[in-house]
TrEMBL record:
Residues of the RCK C-terminal domain: 134-215
Domain RCK N-terminal residue range list: 1-118
Protein's UniProt name: Trk system potassium uptake protein TrkA
Family annotation (InterPro entries): K_uptake_TrkA, NAD(P)-bd_dom_sf, RCK_C, RCK_C_sf, RCK_N, Trk_Ktr_HKT_K-transport
Pfam families linked: TrkA_N
Keyword annotations of the record: Ion transport, NAD, Potassium, Potassium transport, Transport
Organism the protein comes from: Terracoccus luteus
Tagged with keyword Ion transport: yes
Cellular component aspect of the GO annotation: plasma membrane
Any one Gene Ontology molecular-function term assigned to this protein's record: potassium ion transmembrane transporter activity
């Protein structure tokens, strides 16, 4: 798959190298050509010097063919603007933005763009929001058999009840992160845009659950 990353600081370069080692095509955008030195000599992806929210720059980086876009520059405004251009102009479905201000991140979540605030940042968390079947265990019981994992849902799940997620996966919704805050599921609660759903499942069932959640829900 093709990934476009805006920003080649420590975060962006780590993302690019990680995705590249996993066999993906990667294009990195930065306004300073010298920043690409962070990628190292083994990086085989594309580098594009320019402004990350400029349409011509994004096209040069292959945004029209991109599976996902990550905005991880040092500026909140630049990141959210670039993320919105990638999603709204070029139709990139998997978009994530790094936001320094957690309060502003909550506002951007309402726009349907997953954000990662600096206080909870790791490159693994950003990759989790970009890759398909990106569930990552957050808690494991002492036996190692049961996990609570954040499991990405396909957009078609929006508007469907959380009970449908449980019925079709066989898991249990432990909690939902909505607009940056945790919420305990209530009867009749439905999936909203931007929700992060955390499921309790058997570890050996996690891959199957990921595949179900990555597809539109089965007809009722």
């Amino acid at each position: 798959m093709h990934f476009v990353i805006m920003g080649c600081g420590r975060v962006g370069s780590t993302l690019a190298r990680t995705l590249g080692r996993a066999g993906h095509d990667v294009a990195v955008i930065d306004s300073e050509a010298s920043a690409f030195r962070r990628l190292g000599t083994e990086f085989e992806g594309q580098t594009v010097t320019g402004i990350g929210f400029d349409r011509d720059t994004l096209v040069a980086a292959g945004i029209k063919e991109a599976y996902a876009f990550a905005a991880v520059s040092s500026g909140d405004n630049s990141n959210i603007l670039a993320a919105r251009v990638a999603r709204e102009t070029f139709g990139v479905e998997h978009v994530a933005a790094r936001i320094y201000d957690p309060q502003r991140a909550m506002v951007y979540q309402r726009l349907g763009i997953p954000t990662v605030a600096t206080v909870r940042w790791t490159s693994d968390q950003m990759i989790q929001r970009l890759l398909p079947q990106g569930a990552m265990p957050e808690l494991t019981d002492p036996s190692g058999k049961i996990v609570i994992a954040e499991v990405p849902l396909a957009p078609a799940w929006i508007g469907r009840p959380l009970s449908a997620v449980e019925e079709q996966t066989g898991g249990r919704v432990a909690y939902v992160t909505r607009l940056g805050e945790g919420a305990i599921p209530t009867p009749g609660m439905v999936v909203q845009q931007g929700d992060l759903v955390h499921l309790s499942v058997r570890r050996d069932e996690l891959a199957r659950v990921e595949r179900i959640c990555d597809q539109p829900p089965a007809p009722v």
